[in-house]
Amino acid sequence: MTRTLITGGLVVTASDELHADVLIEDGRVVAVATSGSQQWTSDRMIDASRKYVIPGGVDAHTHMELPFGGTFASDTFETGTRAAAWGGTTTIVDFAVQTPGHSLREGLDNWYAKADGECAIDYAFHMIVSDVNEHSLKEMDGLVEEGVSSFKLFMGYPGVFYSDDGQILRAMQRASGNGGLIMMHAENSIAIDVLVEQALARGETDPRHHGEVRKVLLEAEATHRAIQLARVAGSPLCVVHVSAEEAVAELAAARDKGLPVFGETCPQYLFLSTDNLEEPDFQGAKYVCSTPLRPREHQAALWQGLRTNDLQVVSTDHCPFCFRGQKELGRGDFSKIPNGLPGVENRMDLLHQAVLDGHISRRRWIEIACATPARMFGLYPQKGTIAPGSDADIVLYDPHAEQVISAETHHMNVDYSAYEGKRITGRVDTVLSRGEVIIDRREYTGRAGHGSFVHRSTCQYL
To answer: What average pLDDT does the chain have?
Structure first.
């Protein structure tokens, strides 16, 4: 039995801030008490003076090793989870993929095999359902029991992941019965593909046109349609990577009716914009993702949605492709640029900067990055908080340290940073995963294989 004592820090959770000591035993928090009020003995003492003691981040939207556009996301589970640890994230929920014509079981087993023995931090899975049929609908029930309790559907990517309204309705009906949560990529891609074809015919091939054809109104329309289908099915719904004011308005209207509808956004929509897509010499390709980056004026609506709880979660949608050799596949045709950005290492720091910039409070930072994703996806209170019985996934965060985000210093396996040169205040100092120190005062001490698969319950907001 090993005991670790974290002393002298400001413990920040979604509900409280207090100067407290945290006692850890065999990988779990066993007690939290006002600093100095208890005379605990321990095998190891960690001094957290002048630092925040926060729950490890829960990034509920990553794509390690995802096949896309004739290539693969450049981060493996080994490199991606190590980078996540460097950024203060101690749990990821990645997306297992069903290949059309194959079973959910086969897709999930492929992802188990990719991750097993490779992860530096704990991990769980959502299931991408890209072939809705009687067999896959029945399989959904078993996956919920197995701890894979959320299912992603796509109104986008015809021929790859796309489901039509009838398939979406059937999957939602199944989820309404088995307790699963439907996650939706909400874009009207049938219409978008018409605009893509027309843009290319006009010779509009640069990365900026990726954003121009994926219209705000087509995200809002798809969001509205997904909500109505969920109402018909009696199913909860989480719309992912919300990027625009109009889509936020659809979510807000649904939530005002008391519907079980939730929204996720990502740092790229909060901190980047179409200005990045317009960078010259094909540099804009680095920022191609879907939903796309929007004009800067949409950021205010996203921040407001996070403050009013019309958006509940900030995940990364981490899906990195190197600029050289991968993003360059789309030179001369923006529709061939692999869609995705790196970010799993930057999320906690960027959101801390948002606290300093006055967008959100300190506790809201922890709520949208740790506690709510854990609750949304059936991990709380094992993950997402610091409380007796919780896993000792804990970050010592230095709120005074200054850093410049750069590909020169990041740990993601990708040759650029989406936030290159951005100056921020705040940095991860030490990270514990289930009580084991995996980042020790800015030195990596973790290992592939430490991370374990986490069995999730169903959404805790229902």
So the answer is: 97
DSSP secondary structure string, 344-388? TTTHHHHHHHHHHTTSS-HHHHHIIIIIHHHHHTT-TTTSSS-ST
Rounded to whole angstroms, the Cα distance separating 170 from 371 reads 31
Angle (deg, nearest 10), helices 134-145 and 104-115: 40
Distances (CA, A) of 402 to 84, 230, 424, 428: 19, 45, 6, 11
Rounded-to-integer distance, Cα 251 and Cα 62, Å = 23
Place of tokens 């973790």: 446
- The set of residues, in sequence order, having a beta carbon less than 8 Å from that of 168 and lying 6+ positions away, is 132, 153, 155, 184, 226, 229
What is the CA 296 to chain-centroid distance, rounded? Answer: 21
| Distance separating alpha carbons of residues 149 and 380, to the nearest angstrom | 14
Q: Which two tokens stand for residue 108?
A: 């999930």
What distance in Å separates the CA atoms of residue 46 and residue 57, rounded to the nearest whole number? Answer: 20
Task: Write the pLDDT tens digit of every residue in 137-164.
Answer: 999 999 999 999 999 999 988 888 999 9
Q: Where are the beta strands (DSSP E) in 177-304?
A: 181-185, 237-239, 261-265
Residue ranges in the chain whose pLDDT is less than 50: none
pLDDT at 253: 98
**What is the pLDDT at residue 1?**
66
Backbone angles phi, psi at 378, to 5 degrees: 70, 35
d(CA 274, CA 290): 13
50 φ, ψ to 5°?
Answer: 65, 20
383 contacts 58 by C-beta, under 8 angstroms:
yes
- Nearest Cα to Cα of residue 365 among 388, 393, 384, 344: 384
Q: Specify whether the CB–CB gap between 108 and 128 falls below 8 A.
A: no
